[in-house]
Amino acid sequence: MLKKLFVISGPTAIGKTNLAVDIALKLDAEIISADSRQFYKELKIGVATPSDDELATVKHHFVGHLSIMHYYNASKFEQDVMSFLKQYFKEHSSIVMVGGSGLYIDAVCKGIDELPNPDENLRKKLKEKLKTDGIEYLQQLLHDLDYDYFDIVDLNNPNRLLRALEVIIQTGETYTSLRNNKPRQRDFEIIKIGLNRPREELVEIIEKRVDRMIENGLIEEVRNLEKYRSVNALKTVGYQEIFSYLEGKFTLDEAIEKIKTNTRRYAKRQVTWFKRDKDINWFIPENRKDIYRLIDSKT
Question: In this prediction, what percent of the chain has a pLDDT beyond 90?
Answer without folding.
Answer: 79
